[in-house]
Design a protein that fits this description.
single chain; 605 residues; alpha/beta; Rossmann fold; 4 domains; seven-stranded mixed β-sheet; 22 helices; UDP-glycosyltransferase; membrane; transmembrane; transferase
């Protein structure tokens, strides 16, 4: 190290100009300057390698100009070293900060690894089933849960094509028996006027679907290696996703769009509680109550899985034996995309949580193409969509819809139909539309819908009245609620006329009764302290931490003959039979005794 002592400013400046150094303002430099009795120090490096030093002291002063900067400096004494600082200088200065940050990060990573819950999601490969669960898993991230979806190849591509971020495992086995294809066939049959329902075909395809993925050893190898903590599985007619959770030794949570009293073993009164898929309201006629009772009885005796045989024993022989119904009843929690605002008040089990409107949310800005079309509307915007599965309506229905829309020039119609974008006057046809964002647009006045669960909740969220065109499955039940609660008008997709549709559009838009009903329901929906996703995420986090014993009804663990009190009724029946038989013997004895006394008396006479 070479050290120099400077007693004049010129001497110091000349030495600095010959020195190649850098400084970051904290004295971590290629030089060390010691100032005696200095109150302020500032160093800057200029482009021409000249430097300015300011020493404010009490002795010698000199005014200098370097690169246009005028500085007055007073120098007492300076010592200059041309050596580079030791590597320990940075550590000595910042070491405690780096250590603190490193320890904090290490602690947080440790907490993450300890408390993070890993979830596997297995739901039917349909957008209407996946979107609500995606909303839940996004909220679960706030609770340090991470989710991985098991998807078919086509569904994984579709989701990613929409720009959605999702962690997934692609299972080729799900492509072999497509549930989406079965649902599409049912909807197309109904739109073409068919009155039959391919029950046996649906039952058989559901079994093939289960067999396909339950025998996929590659899939299970991937899932077992991932070491998940719990599963969210679909609860729907004739699916068997809970077997996947059992095979992986995971506790599971059900997710579905409706509440099933048979699953939860809660009281069901067919006098005012509509059976699933009945299409009735809570105010039924005598005939409807008779039909409702039959439908409930059929649902009571239907198989819990797509087989009357035991699928657990077939596909999970290495695990302890369980019946299909016992496995189904072993769920931790049931998240239901339902709400009394779109249904009716009924007795609900404590481990069933109503979270209707999971896929609904605040509207985002529209792309300029759609926004400009919406702004051109004179009296408002009408959104038309029949779901994600039906890409286009049959020609007869399509012609009637277009004819009705063309008669109403004061409205602009955005219609999801076909594979290409097309604008025809006041009608914009799109292969896909941002439905939730459009329903939240300030100019939207009406929603013409097939009444899918997510669609009606998006309309409820944004307070948009509806014209209901139910096609099949649960859509008729949703449409019945829309009509009964005054949220809109119910129409027949096969029998409507052009003039009828025009009249009903004007009626719903201009009659304040419909707007008031849906707006009032929307205000109730938004007045709650938690959003549907927050409510679902809270309860899922709770049961994964503490289990579900504290709110699990004992009825779920009872044998069926105990729950239905078959043993009690049998005892009563046996007792009644014995009582009747004893009474019969008693009467017989009394009669015989009376006859005997009468014969004795006759002989005595």
């Amino acid at each position: 190290m070479d050290e120099f002592t400077f007693t004049s400013f010129d001497h110091l400046e000349s030495k600095l100009e010959k020195c190649d150094y850098c400084c970051n303002g904290d004295y971590i430099c290629h030089f060390i300057v010691h100032c005696v009795r200095c109150r302020n120090t500032n160093q800057e490096k200029r482009q021409n390698n000249s430097y300015i030093l300011q020493f404010t002291g009490i002795q010698e002063s000199k005014e200098t100009t370097v690169d246009g900067y005028a500085d007055t400096c007073t120098l007492t004494e300076a010592r200059f070293s041309n050596r580079k600082p030791r590597s320990t200088s940075f550590i000595m200065t910042y070491g405690w900060k780096i250590s603190f940050i490193a320890l904090t990060l290490g602690f947080l990573i440790h907490l993450y690894n300890v408390d993070c819950k890993r979830c596997i999601v297995f739901v039917a490969p349909l957008r209407s089933h996946i979107s609500p669960v995606m909303a839940i898993t996004k909220e679960l991230e706030k609770y340090n849960h991470s989710a991985t979806f098991v998807l078919s190849t086509s569904m994984d591509k579709e989701i990613r094509s929409k720009g959605l971020s999702i962690k997934s495992v692609v299972a080729n086995s799900l492509d072999k028996a497509s549930i989406e294809h079965d649902v599409q066939v049912i909807l197309e049959m109904k739109m073409n006027g068919s009155t039959s329902f391919p029950f046996l075909q649906l039952f058989g395809n559901a079994y093939d679907h289960c067999h396909s993925f339950l025998t996929d050893d590659e899939l299970f190898g991937i899932l077992e290696a991932a070491k998940f903590d719990y599963a969210i599985v679909d609860y729907a007619p004739f699916v068997c996703y809970e077997i996947l959770a059992y095979k992986l030794s995971l506790p599971f949570i059900f997710s579905s769009a409706h509440y099933d009293p048979n699953l939860h073993r809660t009281p069901f009164n067919p006098a005012y509680m509509p059976a699933f898929l009945s299409g009735f309201t809570d105010k039924m006629t005598f005939r409807e109550r008779m039909i409702n009772t039959v439908l409930y009885t059929l649902q009571l005796i239907k198989p819990t899985m797509p087989s009357f045989g035991n699928l657990v024993a077939k596909y999970v022989p290495e695990k302890p034996f369980m019946s299909n119904s016992e496995l189904e009843n072993s769920f931790l929690l049931h998240i239901i995309d339902g709400d009394i605002l779109m249904d009716y008040p009924i007795p609900i089990a404590s481990n069933a949580i109503l979270c209707g409107g999971l896929a609904a949310g605040p509207a985002k800005s529209l792309i300029s193409r759609i926004e400009s079309f919406a702004e051109k509307s004179k009296d408002g915007l009408v959104i038309v969509s029949f779901g994600s599965i039906i890409k286009s309506c049959p020609e007869k229905i399509m012609n009637k819809l277009i004819s009705a829309f063309q008669k109403m020039k004061h409205f602009n119609f955005i219609f999801r139909s076909g594979d290409y974008e097309k604008e025809n006057g006041n009608i914009l046809l799109l292969p896909w539309l941002p439905q939730n964002d459009l329903l939240g647009h300030v100019k939207t006045k009406l929603f013409i819908t097939h009444c899918g669960k997510s669609s009606v909740f998006e309309a409820l969220y944004h307070g948009v009245p509806m014209i209901a065109f139910p096609i099949a499955l649960d859509q008729k039940s949703n449409a019945a609620v829309i009509k009964d609660k005054g949220y809109g008008i119910l129409m027949d997709i096969l029998e409507f006329s052009v003039n009828e549709l025009v009249e009903n559009i004007n009626k719903v838009v201009h009659n304040s009764t419909f707007m008031f009903s849906i707006k009032n329901a929307s205000e109730i929906f938004h007045s709650r302290p938690q959003t549907p996703t927050q409510r679902a995420a809270y309860w899922i986090d709770l049961v994964t931490k503490y289990g579900s014993d504290h709110f699990r009804p004992a009825s779920l663990d009872m044998p069926w003959y105990c729950y239905f009190m078959v043993d009690v009724y049998l005892v009563y029946l046996v007792g009644l039979v014995l009582a009747v038989y004893s009474f019969k013997l008693f009467l017989k004895y009394c009669i015989k005794l009376c006859c005997r006394k009468k014969n004795v008396k006759t002989k005595l006479q």
